[in-house]
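R.M. (postdoc): so does anyone remember the format we settled on? I'll just put the structure tokens first.
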């Protein structure tokens, strides 16, 4: 009996939490049984193209699953797609994704890893760059690889099908991406590959190509795409509905409390370590209206802040939130900006954009017209308002942006 790995049923309970598909489950059971018998960890693969340096909780869903395998005693292998990032994976997109340069991919990867290590144990995580093997393939080897898959199979991928039917261009190099990702599985002898539901096709190609190279095919495990704080779109920085892994405790707490009630249970399932039993209890309590959803959100917010910062940071973030939004106070700490006093004053829109609280005058004007701007707790409704104060004041923009404005006189 293995002294390293838990019982198979216990492993499966943890592994299957929040999972959309496990293909095929019976193969995973056999791999786990062999792993226990031989006291040998499975190779668990997660590939990531560092297309941008910043991560959010949507990215954390699959990284957390990798961490769960890691805690069960298996080998977590994080593949940095420095080579594949130069191709650009179009998964879930209706157009070609702009590729990165090798240097951009490397730079982004450094920040990516720093944030990923907030979830993974860095001492037990194996980091590899797929340029190590893909960069060494010659053209003959690429042709040989391409011969192992048909165009008919490739066009089965949902996003390719949609683009083909709508006469949207598909570049030939895009067909190489799933094959390149599959070669990653061959190179590291992956036992299980993780990915979002949008990666299912690519993960299945990995199984096929492993067989072509006489390797035991990997099991694939897909996780759902986390819905953002707006409750509509998947979490994305471009949609502005994200909670960043590097967000401050106050930002994390406040953004979490802004999610709609129907996301409470999915968030507990996908981005926390809360037990299955507790989550079932929360769900039941919500269904029979025996708990206020806001209380659960506060618990969720505290858990998230504590995971990425500390228990004390979570306590402070809650106190700060209550002070600002329940007691209508202002935060104890806020950024300070100095502006030169002028007899002509400074327009409210100019001030908001000058301190980067809005990207443009148009956006600043919208915030004013929606009642989202105040000075010393007095709401500003006129976007043409001119500030002539000689004393320092507190500017509030939106729900969470505060700044102390320091007036400098000559």
């Amino acid at each position: 009996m293995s002294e390293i790995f838990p019982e198979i049923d216990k492993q499966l309970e943890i592994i299957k939490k929040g999972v959309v598909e496990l293909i095929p489950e019976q193969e995973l059971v056999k791999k786990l049984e062999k792993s226990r018998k031989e006291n040998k960890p499975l190779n668990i693969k997660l590939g990531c193209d560092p297309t941008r340096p910043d991560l959010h909780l949507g990215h954390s869903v699959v990284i957390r699953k990798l961490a769960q395998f890691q805690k069960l005693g298996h080998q977590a292998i994080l593949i940095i797609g420095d080579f594949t990032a130069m191709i650009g994976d179009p998964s879930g997109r209706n157009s070609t994704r702009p590729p990165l340069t090798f240097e951009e991919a490397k730079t982004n990867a450094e920040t990516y890893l720093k944030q990923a290590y907030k979830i993974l144990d860095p001492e037990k995580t194996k980091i590899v760059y797929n340029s190590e093997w893909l960069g060494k393939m010659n053209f003959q080897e690429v042709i040989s690889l391409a011969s192992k898959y048909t165009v008919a199979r490739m066009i089965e991928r949902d996003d390719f099908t949609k683009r083909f039917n709508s006469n949207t261009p598909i570049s030939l190099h895009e067909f190489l991406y799933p094959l390149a990702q599959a070669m990653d599985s061959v190179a590291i002898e992956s036992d299980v590959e993780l990915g979002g539901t949008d990666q299912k096709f690519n993960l299945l190609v990995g199984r096929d190509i492993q067989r072509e190279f006489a390797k035991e095919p990997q099991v694939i495990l897909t996780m759902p795409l986390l819905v953002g704080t707006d409750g509509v779109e998947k979490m994305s920085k471009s949609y502005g509905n994200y909670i960043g892994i590097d967000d401050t405790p106050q930002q994390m707490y406040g953004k979490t409390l802004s999610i709609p009630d129907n996301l409470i249970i999915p968030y507990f399932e996908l981005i926390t370590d809360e037990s299955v039993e507790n989550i079932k209890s929360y769900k039941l309590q919500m269904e029979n209206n025996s708990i206020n959803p806001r209380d659960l959100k506060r618990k969720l917010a505290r858990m998230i802040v504590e995971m990425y910062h500390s228990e004390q940071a979570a306590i402070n973030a809650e106190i700060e939130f209550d002070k600002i939004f329940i007691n209508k106070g202002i935060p104890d700490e806020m950024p300070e900006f100095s502006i030169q006093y002028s007899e002509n004053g400074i327009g409210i829109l100019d001030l908001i954009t000058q301190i980067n609280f809005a990207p443009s005058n148009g956006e600043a004007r919208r915030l004013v017209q929606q009642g989202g701007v105040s000075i010393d707790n007095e709401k500003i409704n006129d976007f043409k308002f001119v500030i002539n104060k000689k004393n320092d004041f507190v500017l509030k923009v939106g729900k969470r942006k505060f700044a102390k404005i320091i007036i400098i006189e000559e």
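R.M.: ...and that's the designed sequence above, right after the tokens. Also worth knowing: The chain has three domains: 8-223, 247-326, 336-408. The chain has 17 helices and 13 strands.
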